[in-house]
Amino acid sequence: MNRPDVRKALHIPTNHSFTWKSCSDDVFKNYIKQYDDMSGFIMNILAAKIPITFFYGDTDAVCNYLLGQKFVEGLGLKLIKPKEAWILNGQIGGFETIYNNLKFLTVRGVGHMLLSWAPVQAEYIFNQFLNNSN
């Protein structure tokens, strides 16, 4: 994001001299929290028959999968398929629990940056979602 060719491709004006970084103290300090709970939004999406997949790296210290699992369980959705391993290329890729129109996945051995750390697993998850397959 700090390379001139990338900035040009993203149409970032050349007169902006800031240095991009993945986390910003300025944004964090000025962020105004609007919602304490997202479950209402999730339930509205599900009521519209739009499928949802939550995925977490099981070594992610930023967005812990146990909190995600607790959130999903708290929605009170009908359980379609209890937690079991999902397999990719003959190996356990993680675990999945399937509810009515919602899938909760963990990705084995992956932290916060799924796309960078496990692109093969990420592609598999996205293809499963796009093809609406279990």
TrEMBL record:
* SUPFAM superfamilies assigned: alpha/beta-Hydrolases
Q: Which GO terms describe its biological process?
A: proteolysis
Q: Which InterPro entries match?
A: AB_hydrolase_fold, Peptidase_S10
Q: Name one GO molecular function term.
A: serine-type carboxypeptidase activity
Family of this protein: Belongs to the peptidase S10 family.
Query: What is the designated name of this protein?
Result: Uncharacterized protein
Q: Write down the species.
A: Meloidogyne incognita (Southern root-knot nematode worm)
